Request: fold
Amino acid sequence: MVTTAAGSLATADEWTDSDDDLEAGPLTDGFHLVIDALKLNDVETIYNVPGIPITDLGRYMQAEGLRVLSFRHEQHAGYAAAIAGFLTKKPGICMTVSAPGFLNGLTALAHATTNCFPMILISGSSEREVVDLQQGDYEEMDQLAIAKPLCKAAYRVLHAEDIGIGIARAIRAAVSGRPGGVYLDLPAALLGQTMDAAAGANSLVKVIDAAPAQLPAPEAVARALGLLKNAKNPLIILGKGAAYAQADDAIRDLVEKSGIPYLPMSMAKGLLPDTHPLSAGPARSLALKGSDVVVMIGARLNWLLSHGKGKTWGDKAKKFIQIDIEPREMDSNVEIAAPLVGDIGSCVQALLNGMGEDWAQPPTEWTEAIFTKKQTNVERMAPKLQNNNVPMDYHGALGVLRTIINERPDAILVNEGANTLDFARSVIDMHKPRKRLDVGTWGVMGVGMGQAIGAAVETGLPVLAIEGDSAFGFCGMEVETICRYDLPICVVVFNNNGIYKGTDINPTGSADAATTVFVKDARYDKMMEAFGGVGVHATTPDDLKRAVNEAMHSGKPTLINAVIDEEAGTESGRIGNLNPQSIIAKK
Ligand code: ADP
Ligand code: MG
Reply:
């Protein structure tokens, strides 16, 4: 929409008062060009923290019909934007003030880039003149230079007439190819610049085909199928790129038609239901060790997969087929025998087309070995999940939450912590794509509340956030945001009085608590009550079940303080081997 410049803008007054410019038409300004450019590109929601110099931009955005949600800290606005990108394939937009606000948002931008989620961080900034001469201006910082190494692309717009092209570039950079984070620097003076409204409208750019399909080469498809055909113990690994791609039907067809067992990475759980007969989830270790040909679909052979080699993989070299949109991902750790570069939808469809009608299923020794192992593991787990111990242990509490998610497959599950993350990931089955959101590639603590808010806003679905007490501490203040926007979010804090465990003791005998211990028997539920939400203190699996069901049913902002045995956790959950002490011990 074209607007006349606000009367309060000095530059606008000068223009319109000028005698020799009587023919000048209505003006627009930087504020409105930014808004019009975003709206033209179907942006609907801004995850924001107001302040100098973007307070008015947020106000104008809201006035012009964008949904502007203000957070208490930029990092969480950023995590909300990042997960919005993952869920929608459109860039999530986070907006911050200059310098410290920008830096707070930058953590989330780096996280988005690392996880291949499209996101744009828009930050207000100081003018180039004062930044470049370092004259001690308010929040003077070279934000563009700082952002560059931490994101996929970074742009600064200096002239109102370039706002349209700047925003178009940011959107295309975020979603095309391998998605990622983009930084857009808007100096304060840009927002107040004015220009002819009609010229301004003409300067806007609607991005056409922002993430074009990228078809794999026919030779690459043939090479992959040739390898797969001769596999004795084939395995498919689905990563969060596969979940992001929204090629759900094609991926299910590929798994089912090929009859190949598959392993979902954490955020790919539910792409096919975890209860699917070909899921090798509960037989992960056997599947990785025993496989000979592995099809990677939107998953990287990074640390989460032991870089494709070593003990996890049975100390045997595997033949990898890798589907990825980023050519440089190939051979990043081990040789990729059959790279399939292209978008997942197109690559998977090409494989399906090439398989023909009479594709042979994998040898039954392999699929049955996995099936048997799976059953043993599931049966071993079952009684643990039904225990009624008080204080609760992880399995007792998660057994309850598992049933709740089974009964509500559309709900979105957010999950972070150490033990809380590791146990929940393996205990709770997911049934639909893109319903499990967690700490991602970096294992970030504090993503939970931002993700819960972003997911609730983008999907309108109820969210269950299962949070370690430490993880929750990084983002807990956003419960006010949850209450303010009355979002259907139920937070369950697994409260075991500390990090990993609540039992450490200061060896000096001083009154200071041990480094990993929090206030004992804290009542996180009271935090939610402080802002008008529902708080529940749950000490038994039955309490927990009742409270979560009630919250999921009512959709009211709820926080349940779930008391967990302070002895129950293990150091660093399942990645204790990354601690220096363990590394030294191994040498
Ligand atoms: P996980 O942690 O679940 O294993 P990763 O984040 O490691 O998943 O890997 C995701 C991969 O998916 C990245 O290498 C990324 O380039 C790729 N990817 C993301 N979107 C697409 C897409 N639409 N088509 C093809 N590859 C994609
Ligand atoms: Mg990965």
Summary: Residues 488 and 555 are 4 Å apart (CA to CA).
